[in-house]
From TrEMBL:
Originating species: Thermosipho melanesiensis (strain DSM 12029 / CIP 104789 / BI429)
InterPro entries on file: Ap4A_hydrolase, Calcineurin-like_PHP, Metallo-depent_PP-like, Ser/Thr-sp_prot-phosphatase
Single GO BP term: RNA decapping
One GO CC term, this protein: cytoplasm
Domain Calcineurin-like phosphoesterase: 2-180
Protein name per the record: Metallophosphoesterase
Recorded superkingdom: Bacteria
One Pfam entry name: Metallophos
A GO MF term: phosphatase activity
PANTHER family to which the protein is assigned, alphabetical: METALLOPHOSPHOESTERASE, ZINC-DEPENDENT ENDOPOLYPHOSPHATASE
C-alpha cells in the first residue's frame, strides 16, 4: 500500500498517530510537501520522513521559501504568517538546518502513479491544465530554475496555485489549501472526482489526514478503495468507481 501525506507542518505527534494505524502493513510513502513551519516539531517531522522508505518526497511552498532564504536571503519565509522562525527554533538555529540541506534540495516537483486503471498526479498545490507535467516530473535543477525555463510566475505554479482546474487524464492529489472542515476536499466534474485536497488544517487545529492506496487485489479487497485516515483514527473509503 502507498500512504500519502501533505502539510504536516511540524505536527509530529499527529504524524506518528496516523503512521501507527498502519504499523503492520508493507508500505511506500508519498509526501506532498510542507513538512516544516508553523508547528513546533519540524525537525522531528523531517527526521521521521528520512527514516521511512521507500518514499517519494515533493517540494512544498514552505520548503521553497526556506531554500530561497538560505540561498538568496529572501525574507518572506520569516514573515510571522509563514512560520519560518518556528522551524529555525525546532532545528536549533539556521546552521543546523544546513545539515539537512541535501534533503530539501532533492525534493521533487510532481509525481505520477496509476492505481487500478486510474492515473493520479501528486502535487503540493493545484496544477494548471497546460503545466508541463512530464518536464516537472523529471527536472534535475532547482524549482526557481525550472520556473525560469518554462517562463511561469511562482504565484501560479504547482506549489502555490489554489484554484481548481480539472486535468485531462489525471486525478489530482494535493494539499496546500486547508479545508478547515477537517475533511478532505473532493472536487467533482460530471459526478466524477477529479481533485482530492488532503490538507485538512492540522496545524490550525484541524486534522492530519493521509490517503492509503491499495496496490493489489488483496489490499483492495481489505479496504475497498482508497482509505482516508486522520490522526483521530477516523476512516472513510473512496471507491475507485468514483473516478
Amino acid at each position: 500500500m502507498v500512504l500519502v501525506f501533505s502539510d504536516i507542518h511540524g505536527c509530529y505527534f499527529e504524524f506518528e498517530k496516523v503512521l501507527s494505524y498502519f504499523q503492520k502493513e508493507n508500505k511506500r510513502y508519498i509526501f506532498l510537501g510542507d513538512y516544516i513551519d508553523r508547528g513546533s516539531y519540524s525537525k522531528e517531522v523531517v527526521e521521521k520522513v528520512l527514516e521511512l522508505s521507500p518514499k517519494v518526497c515533493l517540494l512544498g511552498n514552505h520548503e521553497d521559501m526556506m531554500l530561497r532564504y538560505l540561498k538568496f536571503g529572501h525574507k518572506s519565509w520569516l514573515f510571522p504568517t509563514n512560520g519560518g522562525n518556528s522551524t529555525i527554533e525546532s532545528f536549533g538555529g539556521v546552521e543546523n538546518i544546513n545539515t539537512y540541506l541535501s534533503f530539501f534540495e532533492q525534493l521533487r516537483f510532481l509525481h505520477v502513479e496509476e492505481f487500478f486503471g486510474v492515473k493520479f498526479l501528486f502535487s503540493h498545490a493545484n496544477v494548471l491544465p497546460d503545466f508541463p507535467i512530464e518536464k516537472a516530473t523529471n527536472y534535475e535543477g532547482s524549482y526557481s530554475e525550472f520556473l525560469n525555463d518554462i517562463g511561469m510566475d511562482l504565484s501560479i505554479s504547482n506549489i502555490w496555485l489554489r484554484e481548481v482546474y480539472p486535468l485531462k487524464g489525471y486525478v489530482l492529489i494535493h494539499g496546500h489549501t486547508p479545508t478547515f472542515n477537517k475533511k478532505v476536499g473532493l472536487y467533482k466534474v460530471n459526478d466524477r472526482i477529479v481533485d482530492i485536497n488532503i490538507d485538512t488544517g492540522c496545524v490550525y487545529g484541524g486534522n492530519l489526514t493521509a490517503l492509503c492506496f491499495p496496490e493489489n487485489e488483496k489490499e483492495l479487497s481489505v479496504c475497498g478503495g482508497i482509505l482516508v485516515v486522520n490522526d483521530k483514527l477516523e476512516t472513510e473509503v473512496i471507491g475507485f468507481e468514483s473516478f
